């Protein structure tokens, strides 16, 4: 490390490095979203909002997460308690590299719509942001709901493999 950079870091107390790290895009290992598992959480939407959500899902599948987020934001305003819309928004944010924003949206989704898939989704996002305690809490919720897809077991294996 050159002398000027060392001096800058020493004078700033390391804040410059911290700032640089927080501005760097986070590359998380993105998992596949099971869109069909959100049908129940999206069932209460009006037909117009459901069309907008279906369009957003198509955009997510094409990889156009910015446009999907814009579509989902409009639906979210008129349906603030739609857990399905929140999960889709979180997934788009996750794919854009905004893991903290995705975590916040996932927590909101779980608070307004508590089902095994939403808990599993929150658990995965919590794991990606490093909140192992929240991840384990959500694993317990998924197990209590019956864990129909083996989501809890898969997440536990992932946690165990990272500890090694």
Compute the separation of the termini in Å: 31 Å
Mean model confidence by pLDDT: 85
Number of helices: 10
CATH architecture term of the largest domain: Alpha Horseshoe
List the SSEs and their pairings.
Layout: H1 3-12, H2 15-23, H3 39-42, H4 47-62, H5 65-78, H6 83-95, H7 99-112, H8 116-129, H9 132-144, H10 151-163
Describe the structure using short key phrases.
10 helices, 2 domains, mainly alpha, about 75% helix, Serine Threonine Protein Phosphatase 5, Tetratricopeptide repeat, about 160 residues
Describe the structure in your own words:
- This protein has 164 residues and is mainly α.
- Helices cover 73% and strands 0% of the residues.
- The protein folds into two domains: 1-30, no CATH class; 32-163, Serine Threonine Protein Phosphatase 5, Tetratricopeptide repeat (Alpha Horseshoe).
- Residues 12-28 have low confidence and may be disordered.
- The protein is globular.
- Helix 5 runs antiparallel to helix 6, helix 6 (83-95) runs antiparallel to helix 7 and helix 8 (116-129) packs antiparallel against helix 9 (132-144).
- The two termini are 31 Å apart.
- It contains ten helices and no strands.
């Amino acid at each position: 490390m050159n002398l000027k950079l060392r001096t800058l870091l020493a004078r700033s107390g390391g804040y410059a490095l911290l700032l640089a790290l927080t501005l760097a895009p986070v590359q998380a290992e993105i998992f596949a979203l099971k869109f069909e598992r959100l049908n129940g959480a999206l069932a209460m939407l009006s037909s117009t909002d459901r069309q907008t959500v279906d369009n957003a899902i198509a955009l997510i599948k094409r990889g156009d997460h910015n446009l999907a987020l814009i579509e989902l934001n409009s639906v979210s305003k008129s349906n603030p308690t739609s857990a399905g819309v929140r999960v889709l928004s979180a997934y788009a944010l996750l794919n854009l590299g905004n893991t903290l924003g995705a975590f916040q949206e996932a927590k909101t989704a779980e608070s307004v719509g508590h089902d095994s898939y939403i808990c599993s989704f929150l658990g995965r996002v919590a794991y990606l942001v490093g909140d192992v305690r929240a991840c384990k809490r959500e694993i317990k919720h998924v197990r209590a709901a019956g864990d129909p897809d083996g989501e809890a077991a898969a997440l536990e294996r992932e946690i165990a493999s990272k500890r090694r």
